[in-house]
Hints:
40% of the residues lie in helices and 13% in strands. It is of the alpha+beta class. The two termini are 34 Å apart. Strand 1 (30-34) and strand 2 form a beta hairpin. It is built from nine helices and five strands, in the order αββααααβααββαα. It has helices at residues 3-12, 49-59, 71-76, 78-89, 94-103, 114-118, 121-126, 166-172, 178-186; strands at residues 30-34, 41-45, 108-110, 128-133, 137-142.
Amino acid sequence: FLTPLLYAAQANGEVPSAPGLAGAALRAPHGVYPCMGEDAWVAIDASADAPWARLRAEVGGALSDPAFDGLLGRLRGREALDAALAAWTAPQEATAVERRLQAAGVPAHAVSTARDLAADPELLADHYARIQDPVLGEGVIEGPRLRFSRTPPRPTRRAPRIGEHTREVLETLCGFAPAQIDEMEAAGALR
């Protein structure tokens, strides 16, 4: 996710900055909006016509302003639109806004903290894996982020220790004989 920003910095000297509430220059409404509680937010993208109509029907009020009828009007009035949407989300819990908007067919999601993700039932069901590490003991790690139907993921396992597979790699991939590897090890060339 950071590669485009890294490239822009290296190639053009651009220093990325936080976009604020507006997540994309040509989308409105599109961004994160405050909710009830400390540092609680909900992300909403209703910039396309169909989700916009559903959001408008759900929220009403200031969003009914005819100035917001088309995307161009929403872009021109982004500040007022974001303020109206923030006023609607602010007194509500982020997960309640998420459920309500998703039920109405509007793309929305409560912004999750690390603690939220660690307790998420869907992630607990099949994303996190318990592993046993010979040095650290039992731990929890993330599984693969992508899943393909024809190439299911391999079972999640711990990362190898430095040098753990050196002998195996030298024998099977590099073709060294065990006696040669023993010599390299005795000379201190292997770790």
